[in-house]
Amino acid sequence: MARIKRVRKAVVGIILSMLSVSLYAAVEVETEKLDNLAKNRRVAVVNFAVEYQTKIVKSSSNFGSFSSSTVEFNLDGVSKAAMQAQTEKLYEQFVKDLAASGIEVVSMSEVKKQEAFLTLKKNCTSPKEIPFTYSDSKGIKNSQALVFSPLSLPYHNEADHERSGRLISISNMCESLAKAFANEVPDKLEKDLAQALNATLVKVYYVVGFGQASASVSERFGFNFAKEQNEKTTTHSQNVTSEIYLFPQDSRLSLRVPDVSSFSMFRNSKSPSADGNGFIRVKEKIVSGTNFAIAEPKNTTGIDNTLGNAVSALGSVALSMMGAKGGSSSTQEFTVSADEKTYIDITDKLIGETQSKFIETLKAGQ
């Protein structure tokens, strides 16, 4: 059957608002098995990373239909150099604040002497590109993110069975199998490292989102009296909204306490990361109240913009096709252009306040 495809591109922009950086709500965290920390209060920081989401893909389709609707939303204007510099700064502040809290921290020089640590960090680099599934998106298209870590402490992946459901993919499974055959599975190496140091391992991970996206498709059948025939109308709708936020659950501080078993649970596509045996997690999405984009809405390709225009912080597209005998698909692409300094300032505040809450909660757990 015939398959009709429509592609439009547009830019979503927001005039930069000269407001101080603010949060819609105070940082709230929740804990899991934090009482395990009492079994070994000495800590060693072995992972620190910031996941910057750079592309959101949201796909939708109707059950039993060949029609689909897809929206692609891209972040532009923030350099890798700025993200790396911010990650280095946040890590240095975390280590400084952790030591100032009175918690006993194993020196990095001692950590780096351990064979398990060297194996964990083998071939690790910053940044690392990762695919993820955005908000139960249907289809095989992946959203994209960059994971940055301090150059002195490159990020190592979680074991596949402990990884967030939104990050699971065939490539990750193959990588996990290869490491298993080489006896280099991350959770086993972390257990060995925790025992060798006689310390609880601390891993910090933040997920920074830049917007929201939605897509829908509907089909309606009716009789065209002028043509004296039945026809199908397919309507596609795509929407995007710009906002900087910390993603809940996967923005976390994970603990690997030595000689304590890790969680064993049924996992699915909605499961958060479970890379340890104790956690402090961001409970609810933390959203900034400050705009970060600089451009007026405009069309990037010069194609008729009737279906691809956007207004203020919200971009929406609706497409109807009459008489399509097969399925139809519509893909709309949007880009938000960020003011780099504003984006970094907002992210600094979001993560800075969360980091303070993590350390405060960790200290109370001792």
How far do the termini sit from each other?
65 Å
Class per helix and strand makeup = alpha+beta
Share of β-strand residues: 25-35%
Helix coverage percent: 10-25%
Shape: elongated
Q: For the CA atoms, what is the radius of gyration?
A: 23 Å
The main sheet comes to: 14 strands, mixed
Count the E strands: 14
The arrangement of helices and strands along the chain is EEEEHHHEEHHEEEEEEEEH
Quickly count the helices: 6
Uncertain runs are 1-21, 296-325
Mean pLDDT: 80
Describe this structure in words.
The chain is α+β, with helices and mostly antiparallel strands and 366 residues long. Helices cover 22% and strands 35% of the residues. The chain is built from 6 helices and 14 strands. Helix 1 runs parallel beside helix 6 (340-365). Residues 1-21 and 296-325 have low confidence and may be disordered.
